[in-house]
Amino acid sequence: MCGIIGYVGPRKVVPVIIEGLRKLEYRGYDSAGMAILEKGELVVVKKRGKLKALEEAIEGKEYTATTGMGHTRWATHGRVEDRNAHPHVDCKGAIAVIHNGIIENYQVLRDGLIEKGHVFVSETDTEVIAHLMEEQIDAGADLLDAARKTALQLDGAFAFLVLAKAFPGRIVAVRRLSPLVLGVGVGEMILGSDTPALLEYTHRIIPLHDGDIVEINDKGYAFYSLEDGHAFDRTPMTVQWNAAAAEKQGYKHFMLKEIHEQPVVIRDTLYGRIDIESGHVELEEFQGQPVPDHISIVAAGTSYHASRVGKYLLEELARIPTEVSFSSEYRYQRPIVRPGTMGIAVTQSGETIDTLAALRLQRSLGAKVVAITNRPESTVSRESDVTFVTQAGLEIGVAATKSFMAQLIAFYLIALNFGQRNGTLDAETSAHYASQLSSLSQKCEQVLEYAGIMETIARKFYKVHDMIYVGRGVNYPIALEGALKMKEISYIHAEGYAAGELKHGPIALLDEDVPVVGILPKGALYEKIYSNLQESIARDSPLVVLADRKDKRAQAIATDFIPMPPVEELFSPVIYSLPLQLLAYYTADGKGLDVDQPRNLAKSVTVE
Length: 608
Ligand code: G6P
Description:
By secondary structure, the protein is of the alpha/beta class. It folds into three domains: 3-245, Aminohydrolase, N-terminal nucleophile (Ntn) domain (Glutamine Phosphoribosylpyrophosphate, subunit 1, domain 1, 4-Layer Sandwich), CATH 3.60.20; 248-444, Rossmann fold (3-Layer(aba) Sandwich); 450-594, Glucose-6-phosphate isomerase like protein, domain 1 (Rossmann fold, 3-Layer(aba) Sandwich), CATH 3.40.50.10490. 34% of the residues lie in helices and 23% in strands. The protein contains 18 helices and 25 strands. Strands 3-2-4-1-10-9-11-15 form an eight-stranded antiparallel beta sheet, covered by helices on one side. A seven-stranded antiparallel beta sheet has the order 5-6-7-8-12-13-14. A five-stranded parallel beta sheet has the order 17-16-18-19-20, with helices on both faces. Strand 18, helix 10 and strand 19 form a beta-alpha-beta unit. Helix 3 (106-115) crosses helix 4 (127-138) and helix 4 (127-138) packs across helix 5. 56% of the residues are buried. The mean pLDDT is 93. The structure holds 6-O-phosphono-alpha-D-glucopyranose. The site of 6-O-phosphono-alpha-D-glucopyranose (G6P) has 16 residues, from helix 8.
C-alpha cells in the first residue's frame, strides 16, 4: 500500500529515489512522484501511471539535489490522477509530504483548513498534512516540532515524510501503524517502506515503532517520541539479504523466478530443524513454550490458505483443535480465547494491518501469540511471543508463491514438533513423516522440470471467463489457492471448492466453456474426488487433472493431464501447489498481462 522513500546524503538523490521506487513499486503502482531540494528550491514532479511515467517526465534534466523523497501510490482517497499523486504540497509550494496509510479525520481537518483560507488541489486525505505543516511552520515551529504537532492531530494509520524549503538537508518521518524502516548508512541515511529499497546503501536498519518520529540529516539520525517529543535511541539490526535477491536473474518475471526457487526454500526452511534419522523436529523458537491445547490462526489472502492446510496438519499430526479466521473478520468479532490457547498470525510481510490487529486482539485476550512470517524485522514479529521465520527470502512478485510454500513447510514442522511433544506421534511415525518431508524438495524439482506442460495447457485458458478448482481434505485449501492465483494475475474468474460441494450449487455453472481443475492425489479420498470429477465431465466441462503420473484412470478422464511424482496424500499440498502456480503464471503471461504487478493489487496491505 504505497511505497515511500527518503534520502539525505552525499549522492545525487534522483537516481536513489527512482531505484528505491522501483524496488517498492510492488506496494502500489497507480502513480509515482518525488520532491527534492534543488538549489534552494522545492521541486516536485509527479505523474499518474507507473514509475516509467515519472522517469519520462524527468528525462534529460540534470538535478544535483542530494536531499529528497519519492512515492509510489496505491490509490485510496482520490482517483488516479496527477494531482492526487504524492508528494502533496502546502499553499506556498514550500513544504512537501508523502504518506502511506489513511487519515480518517481528514475531512474535518480539511474543512477547518479551508475555512482558514488554505487552497486544496487534490482529493486525497494526505494533502491535509501539508497544510497542517504550513500552519505550524508559519507559527514559527521547527520542521521536527511541526511534524509532531501535525501528527498529533491525525487519526488513522500513517507513515509520512516531510521535507521543506526552509529546512534544507533534513527529512522528518512519523510512523503510526504503517510500516517504515530507517537504513543507517555511512554518511547517508535512507528511509523506506520496506527493507529491500535500502539494501543497496546499507544492511543496518532500524524499523520504526508505532509512535516514533525520526529525523535524518547530514549528521545522522535522531529518534523522538510522537507522544511527548522526548529524544531516545534505537539500535540498528543487520539484515542478511543481498541486493541481488531483488533482481530477476534471467527470468522473465519475479513470479517465475520465485516459483522456481521453491525447492531451495523448502530445504532452507527445513534446515537445522529436522533430524532425518530420528524424525525429531527441534524448534528453538518454541523452547520454553508449552504445547497449546487449542490454536487460533489469523491470516489474510494466500497466508490464509496456508493456514487452512496448517489447521489440517495440526489436527492430524498433533490432535490440537485448531480454528482459522480471516484476520479482517476475527478482529471485529468477539472471539473466545480459552486458557491454553495459542494464537498464530501467518503473514509473509508481517505488516498486514488486519493481521496485526487480530494478533493484538488475541494477545489482549490472554493468548500466547506466534508469528509465522518471512520478515523478522516486521511489526507482527516484534509484537509476538514467538517468531517462526520462514526462509523464503525476498519475494517481489505481488502474487505470493514461495512464501506460501515456506508457510506450508512451517506448519508441517510445527505440527510434527507439537505432535512429538504431546505424545500424539510415536518415534516410528515421526521418522516416517520426517523422511517424507525431506523428500519434497526433490519432488518439487521434478515438477518444475516439466513446466512446459503447464505452459501448453494454459494456452487453452486465454479466452476462458470462469474456472472451477476442486480438491478435498488437505488439498481443499490448495484448490482455493490455485483459484486465487489464477484470479489475481490472469483476471479470470476462478473459484475453489471442496470437491464434495460441487453438486450443492457450483455444478449449475458447468458447461463446455468452464474448465474444472481437479486435484486428485492417491489417498483415502481418491475415489470420492474421482466421482466428483465424473460429475463435471457429465456436464461437458473440460477437465484438467493433477494426479500421480502412473494413474491411468485419472488420465482416462482428463482432457489435460498433469503428471505428478508419487507422494503421500498428507504431503501432497506441497507439490500439487506448483502446477497451479505455473498454470496461472503462463495464462497471465500468455494474455500479455503484467504478472508481477497485477491491476488493483498490492503486495502488502497496510490499510484496513
Ligand atoms: C495481499 C497480497 C497477497 C497476500 C496478502 C496477505 O493481498 O497481494 O499476496 O497473500 O496480502 O499478506 P501477508 O503479508 O499478510 O501474508
